[in-house]
Amino acid sequence: MTQVLATEPPSHYAAPPARPPLLNVGVMVWLGSELMFFAGLFAAFFTVRAQDTVAGVWPPRGIHLDVLQSGIFTAILVASSFTMQRALWSEERRHDREQARRWVIITFIMGSLFLANQGYEWFHVDFRISHNAFTSLFFLMTGLHGLHVFVGLVAMAAFYARLAGPGGDPGERSVFQCVTYYWHFVDVVWVFLYSAIFLLKG
């Protein structure tokens, strides 16, 4: 009788790579669609700019934006991306949930300050949405971005409630990563919006 011996696979066979969580993949695909959405808004903005720029004047005469104040809160929003990443690293690398919670709170406050300033700007600019194409795009683009910031803050608050427990669950880290990815996306989009709307002169 022939004896069949169990053999181990050769050592040169590597273990199959771990698959990323489906939630992460889905969020990345969704962020890709959001990127295309904002790309369409930028395309509309630069098309209008090319058609409406008269005698090299852009934005149109009578439009005054507080570049410095918006720049300060832009810096706050960009800094909040680093604090959010710090929160994720605290939980991933150090397994320090208390420190992660502190960084999430700091990020939430910074994002809230940015959103509050955006609301302040909306009610204190000296133009309205119907004045011209620039003002329409200003309110549309900043408003949609503000909506994304608000969604990010809601997601952050919901996740903080989940993070407040004494121990994590199997899906917690994946959710943490997704909220962080989304917040980075919101920050990067605003950098381009601020540059186009507030800094680009012609």
Report on this model:
The protein is an all-alpha fold. The protein has a domain of 134 residues: Cytochrome c oxidase, subunit III, four-helix bundle (Four Helix Bundle (Hemerythrin (Met), subunit A)), CATH 1.20.120. The chain is 71% helix and 0% strand. The chain contains 5 helices and no strands. The longest helix is centred in the first third of the chain and has 31 residues. The N and C termini lie far apart (90 Å). About 3% of the residues have low confidence.
Tell me the name of the CATH homologous superfamily of the domain at 66-199: Cytochrome c oxidase, subunit III, four-helix bundle
Helix/strand/pairing class, anyone? mainly alpha
Poorly predicted tracts of residues: 11-16
Helix content: over 70%
Return the CATH topology of the domain at 66-199: Four Helix Bundle (Hemerythrin (Met), subunit A)
Q: Determine and state the CATH class of the domain at 66-199.
A: Mainly Alpha
